[in-house]
Amino acid sequence: MDSKSIEKFKIKKIKNNSIKEFEDSIINEQPFTIFVNGYELVTLMSLPNELKELAIGFLASEGILENLNEIKTMEFSHQNSIIQVKLNKDIDINLFKKRTLTSGCGKGVTFSNLNDCSAVKISNNNLTMKADTIVNLMVKMQKNAKLFDETGGTHTSALANSDNIMFVIEDIGRHNTIDKIIGKSYLNKINLNNKAVLTSGRVSSEIIIKVLKQKIPILISRSAPTSTAVNIAREKDLTLIGFTRGNRFNIYNDLNRIKY
Amino acid sequence: MDSKSIEKFKIKKIKNNSIKEFEDSIINEQPFTIFVNGYELVTLMSLPNELKELAIGFLASEGILENLNEIKTMEFSHQNSIIQVKLNKDIDINLFKKRTLTSGCGKGVTFSNLNDCSAVKISNNNLTMKADTIVNLMVKMQKNAKLFDETGGTHTSALANSDNIMFVIEDIGRHNTIDKIIGKSYLNKINLNNKAVLTSGRVSSEIIIKVLKQKIPILISRSAPTSTAVNIAREKDLTLIGFTRGNRFNIYNDLNRIKY
């Protein structure tokens, strides 16, 4: 386990009015600032690990980065709280400024950002999954949520193929877990258009847009979607599953990718 | 129940490989853009209700608004997806061009940083609470989480005095629930420095900074804090409680405000 991820604190536990002193494991967070071509783009609050993955995934989600060949250099500084990304191409800062002002979360949230996805439709049939597999993979992901087990303070996401979990990511932010999955897949040259993403977190519009932009055909959550996320899934042919708990789940959009 | 908050969808429920068609209630989200003195400040993804409360609370959390007298006019447009706030004072727009994306559920963005809080320390002893009361108020808040009951897609927060819940807020974003509590308190001229905030959400640095800025002495969560939040609470004398479940909770910072 990464020692940077957890800090130990002496706390008091109260149960039925009795008090116990206790050494508790608490999850860390750290501000992480991404510069692109010298321009300060954003500061994310994140778990202080897999930061290269986070930077790459965030830039991909924002539409700034299309593939790793566009990166000239990536340099960390200030104890990894800053990354300087130099690209082999110019980016239009004014466009991005305008866009960041209109998209509060900066993560592709507004209607205008939704328009960025207008060309994206998941027409492929590269991946099908069995109902049993979905249930089993969610259990397996939760079993691998080591930081959650120790601190209760993380979200967990995972990348899976039709049979198995490929890797698991934990972070204090549910958006960050998805960006780190995308960044790690880019770094490891994993083709995303025949994979599924599992996540412990709720599926809001920002989350589904990140998944959609990578043409990932199946998104499986342990939690609830929003109505906007369901509408986007149905419009863009993304298979969306929620409330995956025990031996049950909800299918909000199917498209024959789930076999039962 | 506010009909705008929920949308109905026909979905499939899978349990033990058997399928049932079902009409499900799914939580809504909507982009909400705040203009201040004609400047487009931010777009938040939010539940489409209590938007005046959200705007006031967000501006207060960002240090833009200190009291309601500073507001000249507030006008909604575009079916309440935009609010134009005119203040009786100028604000320095350049201070708000840097964004920090939070770990947030639903929506998290803050322009402020911890340095803004350097002068804030909660030195008062205006509020004490009994351990039993803390347990009971968390149960009471959860019982009043009507939208969560129906959709599973919200966070819940509440304002409380030493004895009872004063009001409950639900939103798709845990940051929004805190901002709405602050905004509603401003609108109803509720003194915050002798109240407690309860929340279902995890306590990251952004959440505790919002509470700290209003000099709210006690923050009670059902979930985990981050290490940064615990450190801020200890430095700034804010009483911080987490994992309030059943008849137990953890005290991360006490300061004799909890009686057992």
Overview of the structural elements:
- 2 copies of one chain form a homodimer.
- Chain A has 260 residues and is an alpha/beta fold.
- The first copy, chain A, has a domain of 131 residues: 3-Layer(aba) Sandwich (Cytidine Deaminase, domain 2).
- In chain A, 30% of the residues lie in helices and 33% in strands.
- Chain A has 8 helices and 14 strands.
- In chain A, the strands form 4 sheets. The first copy, chain A, has a 6-stranded mixed β-sheet, sandwiched between helices. In chain A, strands 4-3-6-5 form a 4-stranded mixed β-sheet, with helices on one face.
- In chain A, helix 7 packs parallel to helix 8.
- The first copy, chain A, is flat.
- About 6% of the residues of chain A have low confidence.
- Chains A and B meet through strand 1, strand 2, strand 4, helix 2 and helix 6 of A and strand 1, strand 2, strand 3, strand 4 and strand 7 of B.
